[in-house]
Design a protein that fits this description.
The structure is a single chain. By secondary structure, the protein is α+β, with helices and mostly antiparallel strands. It has one domain. Helices cover 24% and strands 30% of the residues. It has three helices and seven strands; from the N terminus they run ααββββββαβ. The strands form three sheets. Strands 2-5-6 form a three-stranded antiparallel beta sheet, with no helix packed on it. A hairpin with a 5-residue loop joins strand 5 and strand 6. The protein is elongated and about 45 Å long. This is DUF2829 domain-containing protein. InterPro entries: Tad2-like_dom (IPR021361).
């Protein structure tokens, strides 16, 4: 891991989406301070290989969001999420 990436983990506070993406790839959970529910967060989802009707399938990584209702859903960032600088790590 590059030295500048090591520093990301030591910097508390708010991040850009670019930094949040690096942290998500490292297995961290992230949320925006601008989201209405403090319990909502996203993570990089990964599914194990599986078969469908005997055919092997490989799922690509995706963003998974824990919603207000306690269920996960696939999440796609809006332009306001990509341009935001209020991303924080969820401990």
């Amino acid at each position: 891991m590059p030295a500048e990436q090591d520093n990301l983990f030591e910097q508390p506070g708010q991040h850009t989406f670019s930094t949040a993406l690096v942290l998500l790839k490292d297995g961290r959970k992230m949320r925006r301070l601008g989201w209405s529910s403090p319990g909502m967060w996203i993570a990089l989802g990964k599914m194990p290989e599986a078969t469908m009707n005997g055919t092997p399938i490989v799922m690509r990584p995706f963003f998974a969001m824990l919603g207000r209702d306690g269920n996960f859903a696939v999440w796609f960032p809006a332009i306001c999420d990509i341009l935001a600088d209020d991303w924080v790590v969820v401990e």
